[in-house]
Amino acid sequence: MALKARVLYDFSSENPGEISITENELVTLFTEEELEGWLEGENSRGEIGLFPASYVEIIKDHITSNTNNNGLSSPKSKAVTPTHTSYTADTQPQRGFGAGSGGSGGGSFHTSHGSDDDWDDDWDDSSPADAPQGFGTTPPLYPVTSSLPGRLQSTQQHQHHHAKSSGTVGRNLNRFSTFVKSGGEAFLLGEASAFVKDGDRICVVMGKHGPEWQEDPYPFTCTIDDPTKQTKFKGMKSYMSYGLTPTHTNIQVNRRYKHFDWLYARLVERFPVISVPHLPEKQATGRFEEDFISKRRKGLIWWMNHMTSHPVLAHCDVFQHFLTCGADEKAWKQGKRKAERDELVGANFFLTISPPSVVLDPQEVESKIEGFKTFTKAMDENSVAVNATINEFARKQASGFKKEYQKVGQSFKILAQAFEQDQQAYSAGLNKAIAYTGDAYEAIGEYFAEQPRQDLDPISDLLDIYRGHLANFPDIIHVQKGALTKVKDCPKQEGELHNRCNIISCATLAEIQHFHRTRVRDFRSQMQHHLQQQISFFQKITAKLEDALQRYDDDQ
Amino acid sequence: MALKARVLYDFSSENPGEISITENELVTLFTEEELEGWLEGENSRGEIGLFPASYVEIIKDHITSNTNNNGLSSPKSKAVTPTHTSYTADTQPQRGFGAGSGGSGGGSFHTSHGSDDDWDDDWDDSSPADAPQGFGTTPPLYPVTSSLPGRLQSTQQHQHHHAKSSGTVGRNLNRFSTFVKSGGEAFLLGEASAFVKDGDRICVVMGKHGPEWQEDPYPFTCTIDDPTKQTKFKGMKSYMSYGLTPTHTNIQVNRRYKHFDWLYARLVERFPVISVPHLPEKQATGRFEEDFISKRRKGLIWWMNHMTSHPVLAHCDVFQHFLTCGADEKAWKQGKRKAERDELVGANFFLTISPPSVVLDPQEVESKIEGFKTFTKAMDENSVAVNATINEFARKQASGFKKEYQKVGQSFKILAQAFEQDQQAYSAGLNKAIAYTGDAYEAIGEYFAEQPRQDLDPISDLLDIYRGHLANFPDIIHVQKGALTKVKDCPKQEGELHNRCNIISCATLAEIQHFHRTRVRDFRSQMQHHLQQQISFFQKITAKLEDALQRYDDDQ
Q1: Superfamily of domain B3-73
Q2: Dist CA A316 CA A261 (whole Å)
């Protein structure tokens, strides 16, 4: 008897190999075993393919036998690639990136495409063939499924077992593994092939702390001006435009959020083992609201800083086009088309990497990767806890702290009022001083309420940004682990296979090292900023109190 | 039919004219009208006299006629003296002083005597005839009833009417009015008589702001050392002893609390229109507990400062004896006996006063006194409100504020812990700095919890002290008003009566002015202290944060 499952939520197939399922529909499973959160089976319309395991509920009573209908469902005949841990505790089915992006961060093609109606309704006037809409019909190269099903830990347990049982270096039968989709597998198997110009070459060098991206010989930064509101169609449509001025050209270009979004999609596609940070979240409603715009701008500034300080991302063609192409529509479209037709994406990206001369010890690589996994898990979890605490602290300062200081201020004023009942001239100075002290306390209450915006919110924002950043790494690790596992399982120790695996490892470790360096830089600077702000804050309070204290002297 | 009342609480007669009544007993009332909170009637044992109106409940059904049994109960034949407003909202029957003394402050003879078993079980070895126990049998001269019944406002309403109906300058028939008990009436009627030495003469001079006590030509202060625990009877009994060192002798004397208490009783008896501040409260249990001792010591220090800065109190014989008599038992007893036999108490006190040459305008005096009444009411009420607020603020700092800063501190440490998962050497400095910042926040939490002791508690204590101080003034005002009313009601404008009334007014206004001057001094200095402490507090926080900030530099 076939294994059945009831569909809990509607799921629309968006990629080849997936099938659409509808709530309450009964589907037949080929196996109970999940492949990285996906199950394979047949829907009521007779279509065969994959759907997210968390979208269905297996009907246990029906399990009597487990008929293997095809190779994919047989534990013995398939190789499951190593997988990763999802950092989001959220097991609700959702697309796009997990933490930080809030489900609307843009990033995968899917998101970029799906939200066009909200944001990008006035994408440029080129024909549909040029536009990113076209991507919906081709399989995405990068992590569409990264945070989709939240059950990866259980699959990880039997993954090891299955990997061992795969005796040949063959294709990975899970066509939706990140390892496969990123092009990692194809590269490892020697199937990547493209012409790499010298300008595209990316060097990984051996630094003091392991492999790292070669230092940027032409570092630059880029400022982002306050966005301005622009209108078109005689005011019917409006959008925000950001003025960007890179230091290496010092010429301002104007870019809209959708341009950032387009750039992001290009970068994700282009760099499988580089963490391209999420863009600050979109917000369809109230997008001109001041707070939101300011927050997004801060997010964009961080994003831009991250981009310009990343030796690889900073100098890639598509980013340079984005930063330097002026108002010339034709030039813009040309660069845009070129980027969209870039061959060095996915598997071919790895062709651009020049590793250091020393080959890495695979065991050491594995241990470093494991250490980083532990780190990211701890950082993600603790960031959530820290953020909850500091947000609560900010709330308390705006409510309780402010209220307490204001109540004390008011009570001093009440005391001064009572004292004013005494008409003696020598009393007047004291009464004024006490009332002034009351005002000072009320002002201090306001200071407390306003302070978190200066020194707690930025930490909270940075933690959010980093949680989004962290969410990129499971896929990066996945690619590296996939390569390592494949090489381990290879009976003949082919030199080329090792070399290609080493390239993937070098790139991954370089990116991890870059992550740590920017993390240390960002958190140091944010903590310094926080403490400086707190110091100014308490100094401002002290000055206010000193001012009040002086009123008692005037009165002697 | 006689008017009846049911007794709600036991009341023991302690002064002549009072009768004891027992809960649930039925008493016969001679009139429903209260005399400053007292009712006159007959108890079930046939004793006739006064008891507190708030201790009984009149049985309304029984009121049919109102038989006047004696002169006291007839509204037409008696003169009720002007009365005062009680500042305590508390209408529970209790003895002793109201606000500030907490019912055990010592002050009246009653309290001093009644609590001997708790505190003064080892009063000196003199015979019972010498000891204050004897005072229970003589009528108290001063405000035993000051805060006893809480219903004075209603009596005040008909007081005016009755005062008008008294057509002759006769004796006040309410033998328990403060005006009568203080000796004010006797003095006004020219019945006071005693020999006044030059040294006992008290001058009221006309200052810029009205009558004031002549400035002290020999000002001094007196320090109070930390109390030490003494034992007697081979350690069976223990008590605390305070070392006092007045600046004008610079010789330390040792005094126990009971000595202060005895002194207080003498002063109250001696100075009818001077506010002798209450002693800090006694506490029978846990009296060696550190906090209590420290708080009482602070209270004693304030009390001593008030005493030494009061031109009249500072130089009176009994206080000087208290401050300067050494360990010589005989000399102590001699001075003690002399003070207890002082003739210049009550009515005779007024004989010691030399008024300024200009006679005061009675209307102006009345308006000043009314203004002061308004002031005291406002100050008392607002002190309660202020105290509630700052005590709540202190509580919040010790709980909520501390907790919030500590939670933030802990969350920074959690962040540092996550970062420690990264073993890169360049990360270590930042991790340490963040953990250090966490410690700094925890320390700041402690600072917040400890701070109220430095700058809020002292204000709260001062407000309490002043509430007790304020509670003395209704009686002082009462004496002055009694005199003024009596003079107004006098058909023949006797010059001597006016002069004696002027003396009472001068002394009252001088004392009021002294109150304001010390109040302004005390509150200015306390507010300055508060602000200085707050400034130090925020500077301490700033320093802590600056210290933490520096850790990030070390690490560059």
Answers
A1: SH3 Domains (2.30.30.40)
A2: 16
Dig out the tokens for B269 from the structure.
Answer: 């008896």
User: Looking at this protein, which amino acid is placed at residue A511?
Assistant: E
- At a CB cut-off of 8 Å and minimum separation 6, what does B294 contact? none
pTM: 0.71
Write down how long chain B is.
556
B65: number of Cβ within 10 Å: 7
d(CA A211, CA A222): 27
Using the beta-carbon criterion (under 8 Å), do B389 and A408 form an inter-chain contact?
A: yes
- The hierarchical CATH code for the domain A222-354 is 3.30.1520.10
Distance from CA of A428 to the nearest CA of B (A): 9
d(CA A461, CA A298): 9
SS3 content of chain B, % helix, strand, coil (to 5): 55, 10, 35
CB pairs under 8 A between A and B: 176
Contact (CB, 8 A) for A33 and A158: yes
Q: Which of helix, strand or coil describes residue A527? A: helix
Determine the longest span between alpha carbons in chain B, in angstroms. Answer: 104
Average pLDDT over residues B287-315: 83
**Average pLDDT taken over every residue of chain A:** 77
Does the CA dihedral A535-A541-A544-A545 come out positive or negative?
Answer: negative
Tell me which of 1.10.150.20, 3.20.20.150, 3.30.1520.10, 2.40.128.20 is the CATH number of domain B222-342: 3.30.1520.10
Render B24-75 in DSSP notation, one character per residue: T-EEEES-S--BTTEEEEE-TTS-EEEEEGGGEEE-GGG-S-----SGGG-T
In the prediction, which pLDDT does B153 show?
34
| Percentage of chain B lying above the pLDDT 70 cut | 75
Chain A residues in contact with B375 (beta carbon < 8 A): 418, 421-422
Domain spanning B362-554 has what CATH number?
1.20.1270.60
Reported as a pLDDT band with limits 50, 70 and 90, residue B543 is: very high
Q: Are B303 and B319 in contact, with CB atoms under 8 Å apart?
A: no
Tokens at A368, concatenated: 């470093």
Which of the two residues, A103 and A66, has the higher pLDDT score? Answer: A66
Mark yes or no for CB contact B419/A379 under 8 Å.
yes
B517 labeled binding residue: no
pLDDT of the residue at A12: 80
**pLDDT value of residue B282:** 67
**pLDDT band, residue A289 (cuts 50/70/90):** low
CATH of A370-554, one of 2.170.150.20, 3.50.50.60, 1.20.1560.10, 1.20.1270.60: 1.20.1270.60
Q: How far is B432 from chain A (nearest CA, A)?
A: 11
Q: In degrees, to the nearest 5, what angle opens at C-alpha A443 toward C-alphas A437 and A445?
A: 110
Beta strand pairing status for A353-354 and A202-207?
parallel
* Neighbouring C-beta atoms of residue A371, cutoff 10 Å: 15
What tens digit of pLDDT does each residue of B145-184 get?
Answer: 333 333 233 333 333 333 333 334 555 555 567 787 788 8
CA–CA gap between residue B236 and residue A365 (Å, rounded): 79
Task: Tell if the CB–CB gap between B382 and A424 is shorter than 8 Å.
Answer: no
β-pair partners for A397:
none
pLDDT higher than threshold 80 for residue B346: yes
Q: What is the pLDDT of residues A401-424, one digit of tens each?
A: 999 999 999 999 999 999 998 877
pLDDT reading at B64 higher than 80? no
Question: Quick check: B215 pLDDT over 50?
Answer: yes
Is B258 annotated in some ligand binding site?
yes
Percentage of the residues of chain A whose pLDDT score is greater than 70: 75
**Could you give phi then psi for residue A353, rounded to 5 degrees?**
-90, 130
